[in-house]
Fold:
Amino acid sequence: MLALPPGMRFGITIINLDRSADRLERVRSFLDPMGLAWSRLPAADGSKLEPDEQVLINADAFARHMGRAYRAGEAGCTFSHLRALRRFLESDRTHEMILEDDFTIPGGMALSSRLEAILGAADRWDLLKAYTFRAYGYVPKHDIGSAGRIVRPLNRITKSLGHLVNRRAAEAVLGGFKGFDEPLDWFLDQPWRFGIKYRALRPNLIEEATQIASTIGYATADIGNFPVLRRSGALLHRVALATRRTLHNIHAV
Structure:
């Protein structure tokens, strides 16, 4: 049981495909002994999306932005997280941690105490990345003692393995989503679209379990990058995003 600030109601959502029961048992094996309450959300299968999700896929825009075709697993990942945000807003909880099922915990039992420190500083963030894949420059925003530092990232941090949100962030992200035209982590990593306190944690709260194969389909042979000339628009898109991201994050609150 976590010690939460007065009035806070916190939950943990685990995104898990129906065909990945072994992953869920793995998560259960280290969350349950910590006394952390959590619930499973069936992940969206990118090849079997709901009709109202399918119409939001803009394959042409994705190809322009990324220089390749999209993977069904990327669409499934995106809509899984959107479903998680909607379910959170339908609850009475004030804060939620949304996790994909291929994470691991550095430091083992330190997770509970670090979560308590993070939630105790909930006024410092709206969306807090629990894991970042890349090294990045940042502005320190708040020291939470042995639990680390809450920081404002200055450049791209990527990955959607896990993050914490409050209701303001969940509403802003859902409101800002107009269609699937880039991977989820690229979408989230554009904080100017949401008007929220977009933060990361140093060191990471969770890590990627690299021994578990991704369900995105990164090794699919027919989803490679387009030829260089056909990717020119994607390269310009990346440069434009990187420039705007850095300028925004330098001046963000």
About this structure: The first helix runs from residue 21 to 31.
